[in-house]
Amino acid sequence: MHLAIYIPLALLAAPELCDVRATLRKNSRLVEGVQLEFAPQEGARVRRTVEISREQSLEEALMEIDGEVLGEDEFSAGDEHSKGSLSLVVVDEYSAVDDQGELTRLTREFELIEEASGFEAFWEDGEEQNSGEGTSELEGEAVVFEWDEEQEDYLAEFAAGSSGDVSLLDGLDISMDLEWFLPQDSVEIGAVWEIEPDFYELLTMPGGDLAIEMEYSEEQGEEDDHYGDDEDLAGDDEAGEAEWSGTIRCELAAIEELEGRSMGYIELELEVEVFSAMEFSEADSEGEFSLALEETETHELKGELIWDLKAGHAHSLELTGEMTTVMHTDTAWQEGGESGQVVEDFTRSGPEEILYTVIRIR
Predict the structure, then answer these.
(1) pTM of the complete model
(2) Spatial contact of 135 and 212, defined as CB atoms under 8 Å apart
(3) What is the distance between the alpha carbons of residues 159 and 143, in angstroms, rounded to a whole number?
(4) Separation in Å, CA 92 to CA 19, 105, 111, 263, 327
(5) Which residue among 32, 36, 114, 308 has its CA within the 20 to 30 Å range from the CA of 326?
(6) What secondary structure letter does DSSP report for 15?
(7) Beta bridge partners of 157
């Protein structure tokens, strides 16, 4: 799961991608007079480049201890800034297409998988800085996705000449063609349609879970844990499913020539919100501890998808805008005859950018 610095709860409770993907193979549509569809040509090869970047700064922080809100002279969150990025380059070959034009086999070569993150915070009495870089064992390998009629899904396996731990294949997903943005009915230029807000997840998880392993400049020590790793503790945590709301608005703005090819220009406007919640509790002979965590992310993005009408696949996508994260935590404990509660609210916001480019190799 990518860019975990921004969406820890959404990742813990992310819905299954296959539920969304089940509709994608049916999303080929006809625009009046012009084919606007996902129609891959057997044997064609394309190089896809995906760049996703996000930055957030702390905008507001509130703390309440045992029902009393702390004033500015008692609590200061300081100056905090975080950033994250994902760079992905793959070469896809549409290896087999059936008589109905449905893609039945795709070979994907992972040329580049890079994730980076950074965090810095400054207070009156100190500072904290941390950065991370990561990649995946999938880099340099090739994977074949083949359609299975019985399971009604694409199954992944390593291509000939590639190898690796089969667990790396578990979270992979074929969906990188952006065909879910296409309209469901015949439309004319100027027509407007909407798609479900949870397609944002497919957009920002290109290729699924790439099994990226991060290395950080600093690690959290055991002394930072409330109870450490005592095996005698009885712990329990629950994470509910992410709740999606909002709209993804699409409009066919024009059909124009670009680089000698006919392209469909689809203007996009996203106002998407995802809510996630998690509860954790544990107890030992001396006391109890509980944590309730809620997170709401809002993504407001605008941009354009350019669709190659002849090739039957995306040419490029660009979305820019702002992401806001509101986190609420409620911590309570009882120990040694004493008890306490701390409630915290943090609001962070900053720019977000999503770029896809597709270059035809063959």
Answers:
(1) 0.84
(2) yes
(3) 5
(4) 23, 10, 11, 21, 38
(5) 114
(6) P
(7) 144
- Whether 289 contacts 338, CB under 8 Å: no
Q: What's the pLDDT tens digit per position in 215-225?
A: 998 753 333 33
Q: Side-chain half-sphere of 181: how many Cα atoms within 13 Å?
A: 29
CB distance 26 to 13 below 8 Å = no
Identify the CA nearest to 17 among candidates 158, 156, 143.
Answer: 156
Q: Which two tokens stand for residue 249?
A: 């608005």
Q: Where are the alpha helices (DSSP H) in 177-265?
A: 199-204
State how far the Cα of 181 lies from the Cα of 183, in Å rounded to an integer.
7
**pLDDT tens by residue, 279-319:** 999 988 788 999 999 999 999 999 999 999 999 999 999 99
> Which SS3 state, helix, strand or coil, does residue 110 take?
strand
d(CA 277, CA 294): 4
Instruction: Please give the structure tokens belonging to residue 43.
Output: 């044997």
And the tokens for 267?
A: 């203007």
Alpha-helical runs (H) found in the chain = 8-12, 17-21, 199-204
Which residues are paired to 298 by β-bridges? Answer: 273, 324
The encoded tokens of residue 47 equal: 């190089």
Residue ranges of alpha helices (H) inside 26-177 are none
Parallel/antiparallel/unpaired status of strands 243-258 and 234-239 = unpaired
In contact, 337 and 308? CB cutoff 8 Å? no
Q: Is 295 exposed, middle or buried (0-12, 13-18, 19+ CB in 10 A)?
A: buried
Alpha-carbon torsion angle 127, 4, 238, 232, nearest 10: -60
124: left (phi over 0), alpha (psi -120 to 50) or beta: alpha
The stretch 340-344 carries a mean pLDDT of 95
Q: Which of 361, 351, 344, 353 is nearest to 70 (CA)?
A: 344
Helices and strands per DSSP (H, E), number in the chain? 3, 17
Amino acid residing at 223: E
